[in-house]
Amino acid sequence: MDEPPLTSFSVTHDASDPVAYLCAWLALVPQILSVVYATLVWSSREVEVINMFVGQMGCEALNFLLKRLIKGERPPRIRAKGYGMPSSHAQFVAFFSIYLTLFLLLRHSPHPSDTHTPTTFNQRVALSVLSLVFAATVCASRIYLSYHTVNQVLVGCSAGAGIALAWFALTALARQSGWIHWVLDREEVASLRIRDLVVEEDLAESGWERWRIVSKRRKSEREHAARAKLK
Fold first, then answer.
1. From CA 195, how far away is CA 175, in angstroms rounded?
2. How do residues 154-202 score in pLDDT, each as one tens digit?
3. Considering the chain, what percentage of its residues have pLDDT values greater than 70?
4. Which residues pair with 46 in a beta bridge?
C-alpha cells in the first residue's frame, strides 16, 4: 500500500520523497528569516537592518494586495488555501537576496581595525551568490511541491526584485539627502539606541572595542585584587 501524503509545516508533501521533505522545510524560510530580522533589529538596533525589515514587510503587504487583485488560482494538483499569483515565498526570498546583495556590494564598506579584519569584497560577492542560490532553491521548491506554477514563481521573483531595487534606491536617497541622520538625531529615536554603524563595520565588530576595554579593566582589577591578597 502506498504511503499517504504527510502534512507538516502547513505543507502537504509525499513522505516517501526525500526531495519533497526538504522542500517542506524550505517552506519555513520566510518564518525563519522573520525571526532573524526581529532578533537583529532588537539586538543590533542598526538602522540598515531596520530599513531592510521595513522594506521586507512592505513587500509582503504588496503581495497580499496583488494576490487579491489578480486572484490567480494555485495548480489543481494541490489542495491549498489562498490565491497563488504571485508566489509569496518567491517574492519574499527575492527581496531578501537582492536587497542583501545590493547592500553587501554597493553600500557596505567596512574598515579594518587593530583587532578585526572585515570581510573582503570577494567574500561579500560569495555571500551574495550564496543568498541568490538559496533564494532560487526556495523558489524551485514551490514548483516541485506544485504549490505554484512557474509563472506564479517568476512573477513573485520579479515583484520581490523590483521592490528590493526600488527600496534600496529610496534608502540611498534618504542617506544622500541627510534624512537618515536627521531621524537618528531626534531625541525620541536616540532614546531607542538606534545606530548607523554596520555600513562601515561588520556586525561582529560592533561594540567589540568597547568590550575589550571593559575586559582589560576587569582583568586588571582581578590582578590587583590577587596581589592585594598576597600582601
1. 14
2. 999 999 999 999 999 999 998 888 888 888 788 887 778 877 777 777 6
3. 82
4. 195
